[in-house]
Amino acid sequence: MKRIIIITGASSGMGAEFARQIYAQKSIENREMWLIAREADKLSEFAKTLSGKNITVRTFATDLCGADGAGHIKDILDTEHKKGKFVIDLLINNAGFGTYGPFVETDPKREMMMVDLNCTALTGICGFALPHMQRGGRIINVASLAAFLPLGNFAVYAATKSYVLSFSIALAAELKERGISVCAMCPGSVSTNFANVASNGKRTEVLHGCDPCRVVAHALRASERSRKIALWRPKWKIVAFMSRFIGRYVGARFTYLFNKRPH
Fold this sequence. Notes:
Layout: E1 2-8, H1 13-23, E2 32-37, H2 40-47, E3 56-61, H3 66-83, E4 86-93, H4 108-129, E5 138-142, H5 155-175, E6 181-185, H6 194-198, H7 212-224, E7 229-230, H8 234-242, H9 248-258
Parallel strand pairs: 1-2, 1-4, 2-3, 4-5, 5-6, 6-7
Helix pairs in contact: 1-7, 3-4, 4-5
């Protein structure tokens, strides 16, 4: 039976790093890796860098936003199922983006699009993938350190990632008897193109960004050990822990006043 690994948002950033590190593992020989992202050319160029092993790399260029985006994944899975049975060994929901700035100053359409991608699509993809998963299967949902507290100047993004964290923990509890693990990856600042997108080009690099190689490697180890949450840096663990003792409004008000973000 064919065994498949699926990575969304795989053309750059942490999605591409997940693909590189998984591809380098000896244990995935004779499997298929599906790379999914919106930009076809960028995805194709990245896929060409993964060569030299007995692993089939397939690319699917599609817009994952919302219910329609998740529906595209269902269509791909249904088409593949007609060719024969297969098992999804690992699903990594990495596709997503953020926006900086006070909510009143951001584009409502873009904020709704963020909810559609970060929450709706991720939920649907999990739902459509699970019928094809067996004991030993794993899901990694990329959340954020922002998931632990409401944040001013980052309101909708933090809310979407809070959803991802809550959903992932609940899903892990429900899937325990089936032997399928779910891990919410909750990174802080990582050196990717995230800030450039979130700030509309006003901040080209994430401040104090960590090496995505180490963050991704930790998340993969955490998932293999069936951890529910992946927090790599000690600082991130402290922030996540201390968030329990900070009032939600206090946290949101403080970050609104003292953590301005270019937008």
